[in-house]
Amino acid sequence: MTSAYQLYFSPGACSRVSIAALEWVGADYALHPILLAQNEQRQPAYLALNPKQQVPLLVTAQGALSETLAIAQYLHQNYPQAALLPAGSPYDTALATSWLAWCSATLHPLIFRVRRADRIHSEAAQHDVIRQVALADLSHQLELVERTLSDGRQWLCAAGCSLADLFVLWCVQRAVQGGCEIDQWPALSEWQARAQAHSAWTRMLQREAQAVAAREAGVLL
Amino acid sequence: MTSAYQLYFSPGACSRVSIAALEWVGADYALHPILLAQNEQRQPAYLALNPKQQVPLLVTAQGALSETLAIAQYLHQNYPQAALLPAGSPYDTALATSWLAWCSATLHPLIFRVRRADRIHSEAAQHDVIRQVALADLSHQLELVERTLSDGRQWLCAAGCSLADLFVLWCVQRAVQGGCEIDQWPALSEWQARAQAHSAWTRMLQREAQAVAAREAGVLL
What we know:
Glutathione S-transferase Yfyf (Class Pi), Chain A, domain 2
């Protein structure tokens, strides 16, 4: 392992935001797939690294770091020139952190209820109600994106594009996959197209696909 | 409004962590009760400030800030001498942020499922199953606190006491109120007693009680 950082991820999961952050700052890192769909987060070797049974996990020279927000803050502090978060004032930085925290604390748990109702209630007959209640809440929350963008700004933070846009993008994509409708929001749709074209996002998709293909071919990247 | 900061809170809610942070750094602030139990977060005047319908909300000279993590980061940056988070290295700070993010993204949503099953599923007959599933997950997650403390450390971050201890404390207290058992964890119990005795925590309880009493007496603090 000669890379400076090791990132444990699952394809398509919220670890995409951490991969995009590593691409954004230009860090030297290696990717390690932990397939949630195959319950690999419960393998003893991974549990020893991250007892939370979650991705992402960033292993640094100082130790391991879980949670997207902690990884974002760590990279922001270590690569101040990369402008991963706005740094004009503590308020500007905190505003971007507020968007990231909203993704982690509100949107992601709602997405979990939509996609993994089986982890909320043991009876399959109850899952559809749980999904519908969560979808309604998710739609109500996502309206905040449209409202924020309706003043004509290009990115969620007036200070400019930041990792907040990419974490909200991941949440929007997952919400749509789960059945959330967003066509009624024109500003959100235009912003989504801009965010999806961000070079850190497109490079993330390439790196993630390469790492999955390499694993399938039995090669460690 | 002559105080530097205005904090909107609900008694007992996770806004306690932000009040404790304001006490910790010695900020000049006023408290404004928004009683979630009376759905006051949906009043138009508050919705105009915070369309997320949540507390806490910190209003600063630059603008409003929601999300505990954003408020914590903002105060940490504006009061660097207060050591709200460890600042020895970016990794130390990020490790404390990782604990805070775990509270917001994992523990708090589980506590919500335990306490507000009515917001997860419309039928009361299903609420107990939802609560029990969430309680089992919560207990499994909280074991991480015991495991972390079992090396003899006094606080969650080896670098020392931080706001992370107080946010985890709030989660532990709420989990216990919801029926989570923690008596099997001796290190957690000793840590809980230490954290509850922290002066920022005890002063927070006083300020919160004063603000509630003042509101009941019809006085604005």
